[in-house]
Amino acid sequence: MSILIIPGLHGSEPRHWQSQWQSSLEDAERVEQVNWGAPDLETWLDVLVAHVRRRPGAILVGHSLGATLIAHLSAQYPGLDVAGALVVAPADPERRRSRVPGIASFRPLPQIPLNFPAILVASRTDPFMAQDRARIIANLWEAAFVDAGDAGHINAASGYGSWPAGLRLLDQLRRSRSAMLPNAPMRLVSPASAAISS
Q: In sequence order, what E strands does 64-154 have?
């Protein structure tokens, strides 16, 4: 089953778990945006749609604004063949005024169920979406919710490199296109523990 890696603003640097997954998973492909520093919903969505149509039945793995993009994909293209989605630390375009003008194009955040099984992973200390808001969004999207603890933005700067615990969540989605997980808090392996097990 194909994996589409969907980074957020500025892409994902080599130390980021998304980049490491892209290198280690033979069926993974990165969705490359035209300009990582100038997000535009319509442009970014066109690129993602083209990738999904080339890889029907793929699992989408989005981080930050890439996770938010997945929700827009589901809302605007409900007929696309997507097996599932792992949405990690979604960025809330309505949380604060950004210095990057294009962020506003991602408003409003979709609030309807996703058209495929999904797991939403959120941190208690993410500066881009409060966890209480993430819990509400997970319910609206009908996604399983995973509490990542005090994990910052769940990126390389927060200590998440290869992130084995995230790979285990991905495996849950890969095992079955109809995989359904309980919408209840789960604790992930901490960054330090993940580093030991990688």
A: 82-88, 118-122, 144-147
**What are the pLDDT digits (tens) for 130-170?**
999 999 999 999 999 999 999 999 999 999 999 999 999 99
Q: What is the pTM of this model?
A: 0.89
In the three-class reduction of DSSP (H, G, I as helix; E, B as strand; rest coil), residue 88 is classed as strand
Cis bond upstream, residue 191 (ω within 30): no
> What is the span of the domain harbouring residue 7?
3-197
CB-based contacts of 30, cutoff 8 Å, min separation 6:
4, 5, 7, 18, 19, 22
Q: What is the CATH number of the domain that holds 104?
A: 3.40.50.1820
Residue the block writes with tokens 């892409």 = 11
Number of separate domains in the chain: 1
